[in-house]
TrEMBL record:
Residues 1-24 are annotated as: Disordered. It holds the Pfam family Sec6. This is Exocyst complex component 3-like protein. InterPro entries: EXOC3/Sec6, EXOC3/Sec6_C. The gene is EXOC3L1. GO terms for molecular function: SNARE binding. It is found in: Cytoplasmic vesicle, Secretory vesicle. Keywords: Cytoplasmic vesicle, Exocytosis. Belongs to the SEC6 family. GO terms for biological process: exocyst localization; exocytosis; peptide hormone secretion. Interacts with EXOC2, EXOC4 and EXOC5; may be part of the exocyst. As part of the exocyst, may play a role in regulated exocytosis of insulin granules. One of its GO terms (cellular component) is exocyst.
Length: 746
């Protein structure tokens, strides 16, 4: 083909650069050439060498073209070789395809031939099975009778013989397995059920291990040996291992739990102590039986004693948890369970017995009762005991209150003091509950102790309220008590008995102020009873003091004799009050009489009309003070506890003849009785009837300049309990007394 034809066959090139990189390279090359040429031919003398440069560049261009042709030629030769190899590979692939097609046809023909030989193969397999059956047919004929005989052995509990027979039957089945190609003959279909029956029989024997160890240990040993042999045997491929050892251990545990904790019924209310007592006797016996009889029948790895102890512990714990999840226990049941679980169970009577080996130790296991269980039982016990104690105390109080209205006076003890068993009963109830709680734990004892003190405080308040109702009904006439004051005095003895014996409720090691609230309540009760007694005394004496002071009082001692007579009669039964309460009561009674006397003096009913009457009044005060002192000395009140000497101090105010010295007497009075006020002094000075306003002011001013009270001054309130009469002005001055303000205004 000529060059013209070749040019016609070439595609027409589109104008413009086909490759942007090529155009950029050409531009860079031309730029570089121009730069080189301008550098070379910059000077005119170098133009003469232009021919040399041209020829050298032509030579270099020819060299580059030759190298390019060589590279292109080698590239074209490589392409030609690759095309030839591709052609050869195509031919090889085509040949392989034809060979595979031929092989596929041959295989299809062989599969058809195999399908024609399949019946023959089945015939051969059947022939081999029949041949094997013909050799084993005598043994196969004996299989049904062997199965029946094995079942008989199992029913007769001949476990070793039954296991040997079953193993022979199983070996025969294994021998038939390979020749028959895994075919299971119908004659062996009941073999697995027979093995399961033997396993259940062994399991039942293990469940009754305690009983069998005592009655038939050989049977227990046979059952355990069968379980151990079967567990250690290597099972054929594809057969599930029979772990009869675990079944035996599980049966031992379940049988033991069923024996002691199998009943789903919880102990009835009140029956829990008996149930726990039965366990206290039975569990050590069970452990002793396990150690002496069951353990020798079992392999050492069974750890029979430890298994027995842990099983009994866990079964007992589950039973107790189930019991606590049911209805709330009564107080006796809660106490019995707490005491049994915390002291008896781990004590020497049961699991801590020295006769048991270390394998029976359960102290490191989870406790029978959790902290929440103990808290629940303690709260239940305290709540129930509190309800019972509250009811008992209320019944004791009701019985005591019922006696207050009877026709007979209070009972007395051999010493003649009023007596009632109520205080002893109250303290005995509380002390006994605290003592019983201490048998369980210190925390329960503290709970019951706090409850006892709380209930005692409630009882004392109820007792006080009952006395107030008793007094109110008597004074209002709703329920007149024939022996009102004696029963108040008997109540004072009850308070005294409680105060003297309440220390029995103090716990060892408890803070000293634990009984302070109860002691404060007892003191309050004592003050209340004394107040009721004194109110009755005041009611007796108030009509007698209506005429004191008066002209009749000045001239005759009959008024105070009547007071002393009635006071003596009223205080006659004070001797039936125990010491030291009787001294307190006599002192309060004596002060009440003196206060009544002072109130009468302060009323201003009498003003002396001369020196003779003042002397007579002073003498009357001395005589009355002596008479009152003699009266209460006779009743048993010590002289240093009496308030009647205040009348002697008042006598000096009336008996003083020089009014200028009244300031000294008033100051002395204030030193002895610091609670005396200006109103009291003004009222007392008013009895004299001979003082001017200025003299009274001078005497009252001595109160402001008086010395501090004497160390021997009376510390008991007297004048502060006596209201001093004073005219009621429009308003009282903020400083000073109403009496002084009245005198100044006049």
């Amino acid at each position: 083909m000529d060059s013209a034809a070749k040019d016609e066959m070439q595609p027409e090139l589109s104008p413009g650069p086909e490759w942007p990189e090529q155009e950029r390279a050409e531009q860079l090359a031309r730029g570089a050439a121009l730069k080189w040429a301008s550098g070379i031919f910059y000077r005119p003398e170098q133009l003469a060498r232009l021919g040399q440069y041209r020829s050298r560049e032509v030579q270099r261009t020819c060299s580059l073209e030759a190298r390019l042709k060589s590279v292109v030629q080698s590239y074209l030769e490589g392409v030609q070789t690759g095309v030839w190899q591709l052609a050869r590979a195509t031919e090889a692939v085509q040949g392989t395809r034809e060979a595979l097609s031929q092989a596929r046809g041959l295989l299809q023909g062989m599969s058809q031939a195999l399908r024609t030989l399949e019946p023959l193969r089945e015939r051969v397999a059947q022939y081999k099975q029949l041949q094997a059956l013909s050799h084993l047919l005598p043994r196969l004929r004996a299989v049904p009778s062997a199965v029946a005989h094995t079942q008989t052995l199992i029913d007769a509990q001949q476990f070793l013989e039954a296991y040997v027979s079953l193993r022979e039957l199983e070996q025969l089945r294994e021998d038939m397995w390979a020749p028959l190609g895994g075919l299971e003959l119908p004659v062996f279909q009941g073999l697995d059920l027979l093995f399961e029956a033997l396993g259940q029989a062994v399991e039942a024997a293990a469940g009754a291990a305690g009983k069998l160890a005592r009655e038939d240990p050989a049977l227990l040993v046979a059952a355990v040996r069968v379980a151990e042999v079967e567990t250690g045997r290597t099972t054929p491929l594809g057969q599930v291992p029979r772990d009869w050892r675990q079944r035996c251990l599980r049966a031992l545990q379940e049988g033991l739990e069923q024996t002691h904790f199998g009943s789903p019924l919880l102990p009835a209310p009140g029956a829990l102590p008996g149930w726990l007592e039965a366990l206290r006797v039975a569990l050590p016996v069970e452990l002793a039986t396990a150690e002496a009889l069951v353990a020798p029948c079992c392999p050492p790895q069974y750890n029979v004693v430890q298994l027995w102890a842990h099983t009994l512990h866990s079964g007992l714990r589950r039973s107790l948890q189930h019991l606590l999840a049911g209805p709330e226990l009564e107080a006796a049941d809660a106490f019995a369970l707490l005491h049994w679980a915390l002291h008896v169970y781990l004590g020497q009577e049961m699991m801590g017995s020295l006769e048991l080996g270390p394998e029976a130790d359960v102290s490191q296991l989870e406790p029978l009762l959790t902290l929440e269980n103990i808290e629940q039982l303690e709260a239940t016990f305290v709540a129930n005991v509190q309800a019972s104690v509250s009811q008992w105390l209320q019944n004791a109080l009701d019985g005591e209150v019922a006696e207050w209205g009877r026709e007979q006076g209070p009972n007395t003890d051999p010493s003649g003091s009023y007596y009632s068993p109520m205080p002893a009963i109250v303290l005995q109830i509380l002390e006994e509950n605290i003592r019983v709680a201490s048998l369980v734990s210190e925390s329960l004892q503290q709970r019951v102790h706090g409850m006892a003190l709380s209930e005692l405080g409630i009882f004392l308040r109820s007792f006080s309220d009952a006395l107030i109702r008793f007094s109110r009904d008597h004074l209002r006439g709703k329920a007149m008590a024939p022996h009102y004051v004696p029963y108040l005095l008997a109540a004072l003895n009850h308070q005294s008995a409680l105060s003297s014996s309440v220390s029995v409720l103090q716990l060892d090691g408890a803070p000293s102020g634990a009984l302070a609230p109860v002691e404060a309540a007892l003191d309050k009760l004592q003050r209340r009873i004394c107040r009721l007694v004194l109110e009755a005394l005041q009611a007796e004496l108030q009509p007698l003091f209506a005429d004191l002071p008066s002209r009749q009082w000045l001239s005759s001692p009959e008024l105070l004799e009547s007071v002393c007579e009635r006071t003596g009669r009223f205080c006659r039964d004070f001797g039936r009050v125990r010491n030291p309460t009787v001294q307190l009561l006599l002192a309060e009674a004596e002060r009440a009489v003196v206060l009544q006397y002072l109130r009468a003096l302060m009323q201003g009913r009498l003003v002396c009309r001369g020196a003779d009457e003042r002397t007579q009044a002073a003498e009357r005060l001395r005589h009355d003070a002596a008479q009152l002192q003699q009266l209460f000395l006779g009743l048993g009140l010590q002289e240093n506890a009496q308030c009647a000497p205040v009348l002697l101090a008042l006598r000096e105010l009336l008996n003083l003849r020089d009014p200028a010295l009244l300031g000294l007497e008033v100051a002395g009075l204030q030193q002895q009785f610091p609670d005396v006020s200006e109103d009291h002094v003004s009222a007392l000075l008013g009895l004299r009837g001979d003082l001017s306003r200025e003299q009274q002011l001078v005497a009252l001013s001595s109160l402001q300049a008086a010395l501090p009270p004497s160390p021997r001054a009376s510390r008991r309130a007297l004048f502060s309990l006596v209201p001093a009469p004073a005219p009621a002005p429009a308003s009282c001055l903020p400083s000073g007394s109403c009496a002084r303000a009245l005198l100044l205004s006049e």
